[in-house]
Amino acid sequence: MLEDYRVLNASHHGVPQNRQRLFLMGARRGFALPEYPAATHEVNNEKAGGNLFLRSAPTVWDALRDIPEADDYEELLHRDWVKARFRKSTGYSAPLRGDEDDPEDYSTPREFDASLLTSSRRTIHTDLSKKRFLDTPAGETEPVSRFHKLDPKGVCNTIRAGTASDHGAFTSPRPIHPYSPRCITVREAARLHSYPDWFRFHVTKWHGFRQIGNSVPPLLARAVASKIREAFPAPRKSDRPVAQGDPRLLSFGMSEAAAHYGVPHDTIPQRIRKAQGAEANA
Hints:
Layout lengths: L5 E4 L10 E4 L17 E2 L12 E2 L3 H5 L17 E2 L9 H5 L12 E2 L4 E2 L9 H9 L50 H7 L12 H9 L4 H12 L12 E2 L10 H8 L16 H4 L1
Parallel strand pairs: 3-4, 6-8
Antiparallel strand pairs: 1-2, 5-7
């Protein structure tokens, strides 16, 4: 049993990102078909679905304001974490930092060190690039790099993953920070995607951004799951935090990961490199 597909925008469900994705709900015969979640937030006073009682979507600066400035820490030039002092959290970031209980969050709580700024390895930019980034107006595209500069009062553009290894391993354009002359960090992208701060990503920026760009924003996933949940008994919140996994897993390369999980090394297609002169001989 199927219902017509629906395109949902993450910004309509409390995520500070304009991200439209198709969802298709289905159910076995004899089971009630879940409904699609109604919008709860609006962007720039645009009434999603004609609903006049929506909250304003959180902004880019709501998501990033309390995160320490990565460029202030030399340690982040050679690793992705550092002990740092966070600023006062916002209404959006407080639940993601664990500063505020979210009654609608039924995930298992995690034990983590809230004083760590993680997934924040720095990117080195030339002085010329920094000047171009600073000169680019908020909400506009920097003409040389084609990177979008985030508007602190708006929402983020869609964070994309780029191409996989077998398609050239190209990185998607990463947004420019609204105030600092640099691209955003993986952690800042995670905040704009509504990931909690305890969630760690691969230590490399390439893999970290791919993990985020390929994923459904947690708050959007929760909105969809909340409708599916209605077909089951009321869930219970866990009050027993669990420890995080082995951090060494975050730095595995493809071969190490394949060996660790006991799968073939080519489970993830590798980049295809043409032999020199192959095109001429074809």
